[in-house]
């Protein structure tokens, strides 16, 4: 029997057997307790979390591109400030998620290398272009809306660092959804051509948003095990249905239609029926054949290369501080920092 060191999910602090550690993990998951970084966990659970969290983190930072495209062309200072805040939030979401993934022993560099090499995915939704200003509104309403529907249950995910990161992310996503909705409402109630622009954006983003929930349940490779481990709480199809039911009345308030002739209320089910999703398109985009796959990944690689000096500077700064801390006390360090800062200000 292999001996492993137990963490908090296993109450013992001394060495325990592999079987005991596994039983403690199962019991913690069953009791809805959180699994923490130092707890024993099955390798497949760790790998599954790294895959999901990496894909999620990559989606956050790649998702900055389609909207950042409109920052310089926002129609007013107010809209520009909102959009800049939103795009910055997405960078922050990436940061929380890469940090949460690091608690599983995978560095951010490693994950970014895999993204740049095409070995890890990001959400296929970001491979569609933002053709008009109304796309920013449609993304906020539909894409951030779908993200919230997916992510609120992740706040109760069994892995502690992921669940805690999601709490803050969801608060910010809800602001993103609201600003998109409000922007579309303004366009829809504006001039006929503004209304038309809003409708056109919704027509283009509706189906890709439904695809964000992933393949149908019977084709979803990772779903069943993820639900047993309580990483996922609801199936892809359940979440997709919930999203459709939320969007239909919102579209009515917006004065816009959803581009699906089969969309109608089903009295018996108490939910909306909706038309068939074009999964061939979804698979093509996943394979790299979407309208913007090339552009998104090459822009990401370029941004990473151009940011090399920032990483070098941050590393040098951290090393300088580590050396200082090794030499002196924290109070002396702080005093030295202030003195250095004042001197720089004075000579600037
Ligand atoms: Fe986000
Ligand atoms: Fe967002």
Automatic annotation (TrEMBL):
Transmembrane segments: none annotated. Residues 323-337 have a biased composition (Low complexity). It comes from the Bacteria. One of its GO terms (cellular component) is cytosol. Signal peptide: none annotated. One of its GO terms (molecular function) is phenylacetyl-CoA 1,2-epoxidase activity. Residues 338-348 have a biased composition (Basic and acidic residues). Residues 323-348 are annotated as: Disordered. InterPro entries: Aromatic_CoA_ox/epox, Ferritin-like, Ferritin-like_SF, PaaA, PaaA_PaaC. One of its GO terms (biological process) is phenylacetate catabolic process. This is 1,2-phenylacetyl-CoA epoxidase subunit A. The lineage of its organism: Bacteria, Bacillati, Actinomycetota, Actinomycetes, Kitasatosporales.
């Amino acid at each position: 029997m292999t001996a492993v060191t137990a963490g908090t999910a296993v109450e013992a602090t001394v060495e325990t057997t592999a079987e005991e550690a596994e039983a403690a993990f199962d019991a913690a998951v069953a009791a809805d307790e959180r699994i923490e970084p130092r707890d024993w966990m099955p390798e497949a659970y760790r790998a599954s979390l790294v895959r999901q969290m990496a894909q999620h983190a990559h989606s956050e930072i790649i998702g900055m591109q389609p909207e950042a495209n409109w920052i310089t062309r926002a129609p007013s200072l107010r809209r520009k400030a909102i959009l800049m805040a939103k795009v910055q939030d997405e960078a922050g979401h990436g940061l929380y998620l890469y940090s949460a993934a690091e608690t599983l022993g995978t560095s951010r560099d490693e994950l970014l290398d895999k993204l740049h090499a095409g070995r890890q995915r990001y959400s296929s939704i970001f491979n569609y272009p933002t053709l008009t200003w109304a796309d920013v509104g449609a993304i906020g309403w539909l894409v951030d809306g779908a993200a919230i529907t997916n992510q609120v249950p992740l706040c109760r995910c069994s892995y502690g660092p992921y669940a805690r990161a999601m709490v803050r992310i969801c608060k910010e996503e809800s602001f993103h959804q609201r600003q998109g909705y409000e922007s579309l409402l303004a366009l829809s109630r504006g001039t006929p051509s503004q209304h038309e622009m809003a409708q056109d954006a919704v027509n283009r983003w509706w189906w890709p948003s439904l695809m964000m929930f992933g393949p149908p349940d019977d084709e979803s490779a990772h779903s069943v095990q993820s639900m047993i481990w309580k990483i996922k709480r609801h199936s892809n199809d359940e979440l997709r249905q919930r999203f459709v039911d939320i969007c239909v009345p919102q579209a009515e308030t917006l004065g816009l239609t959803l581009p699906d002739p089969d969309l109608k209320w089903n009295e018996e089910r108490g939910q909306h029926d909706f038309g068939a999703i074009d999964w061939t398109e979804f698979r093509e985009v996943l394979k790299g054949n979407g309208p913007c796959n090339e552009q998104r990944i090459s822009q990401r690689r370029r941004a990473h290369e151009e940011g090399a000096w920032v990483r070098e500077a941050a590393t040098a700064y951290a090393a300088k501080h580590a050396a200082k801390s090794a030499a002196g006390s924290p109070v002396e360090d702080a005093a030295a920092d202030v003195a250095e800062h004042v001197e720089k200000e004075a000579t600037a």
